[in-house]
Amino acid sequence: MNDLGRLEDLPADYVAELRALNLVPLWPSLRGVLPPNTPTRQTQATHWPYKTIKPLLLKAGELTPIEKAERRVLVLANPGHTLEKMQASAAMYLGMQLLMPGEWAPSHRHTPNAVRMVVEGEGAWTTVDGERCPMSRGDLILTPTGLWHEHGHDGSEPVIWLDVLDLPLAYYLEVSYHLNGARQDTKPGQGDRAYARAGVVPTPVFGRSGKRYPMLRYPWADAKAALESLAADRPDVDAVQVTYVNPETGEDVENILGFHAMMLRPGQTLQLPARSPAAVYHVIEGAARVATEAQGFDLVAADTCCIPGYTATTLTNASASAAAFLFIADESPLHRKLGVYEVRPDNQPHMP
Ligand code: 1HN
């Protein structure tokens, strides 16, 4: 690889003349924007232990009334992107949200897609597009682009959940905005009931549901049961993992980010090849070590970490006697749609 000319090699008055005309020479920056073999990533492997977040989130509950916050969230910000950017990775935003008993987070809709992974507490609900979705530990609730959503809480303990949004991408694309709305009327009929059993979906006699998002709530009990059956029936399968899909199309539930649940068998170590998307690991039950070649994090229940793309990752169940269950969010639907999705079993470039 030949060395390219540097900016300092050019006469200063020439560079100044270019800049005054909004012109820039490419060659001094070419290797920076197009590095050899592996992309430059701002995303740093980062661990956010829940035990450090929870007391600070409860403190936010005392310091800031919900009316002054609209959404009371501490953002899990990746230092590699600088904290102000509020990014976990290039395309993913993560936040831990607190709703106190009796509080209401008013209805709005926006262009970024969101999901909630319920971390702790009972009695809260999210109404999405007129469907009231109860929130329990491990449930995944979608609030896709454009759908009205609001949160309420009839229980007696604080409720905390993890928000995952494609906000950094929407913001970068200059398409991020919101609209406020009135409290939603709830409609009868829930997608998580009509589509409760995979393989048996409502017959489209009068056309399909007509909904781009027929199922909005994915109960943890169902995902966990699917993982346990898969683990029991398929001892040959190492990656005991399910993907959250649209039950009418079989495609990823949302357009940009992908969501999965994984079970690590007691004592299991699972080596995942380097893949282009960044990934977020959140422990639903049990404990696991998430390690790259460079570093490792010991995650306990409700902990969250982010691993940059193109990074081989080893997952180890911390227990020899109990299964561990992880929620995984990644950028794979986006990478597939863009045609840049890549797997590197041998750590070598496999440009698509
Ligand atoms: C949002 O609408 C929610 O509805 C949570 O709970 C977090 C972060 C950025 C932009 C919108 C919510 C959000 C958000």
Strand and helix map with partners:
Layout: H1 12-20, H2 30-33, E1 46-48, H3 50-63, H4 66-69, E2 73-75, E3 93-99, E4 104-110, E5 114-120, E6 124-128, E7 131-134, E8 140-143, E9 149-153, E10 159-165, H5 167-172, E11 178-180, H6 191-194, E12 217-218, H7 220-233, E13 240-243, E14 258-264, E15 269-272, E16 274-275, E17 279-285, E18 288-291, E19 296-299, E20 304-307, E21 313-317, E22 324-330, H8 332-338, E23 343-344
Antiparallel strand pairs: 1-20, 2-3, 3-10, 4-9, 4-11, 5-8, 5-10, 6-7, 6-9, 8-12, 13-14, 14-22, 15-21, 16-23, 17-20, 17-22, 18-19, 18-21
The structure holds 1-hydroxynaphthalene-2-carboxylic acid.
Q: Mind explaining what this structure looks like?
A:
- Strand 6 (about 125-130) and strand 7 (about 130-135) form a beta hairpin.
- This protein is α+β, with helices and mostly antiparallel strands.
- It has one domain (about 45-345): Jelly Rolls, CATH 2.60.120.
- The chain is built from eight helices and 23 strands.
- The strands form five sheets. Strands 1-20-17-22-14-13 form a six-stranded antiparallel beta sheet.
- The structure holds 1-hydroxynaphthalene-2-carboxylic acid.
- 1-hydroxynaphthalene-2-carboxylic acid (1HN) binds near residues 73, 110, 163 and 165.
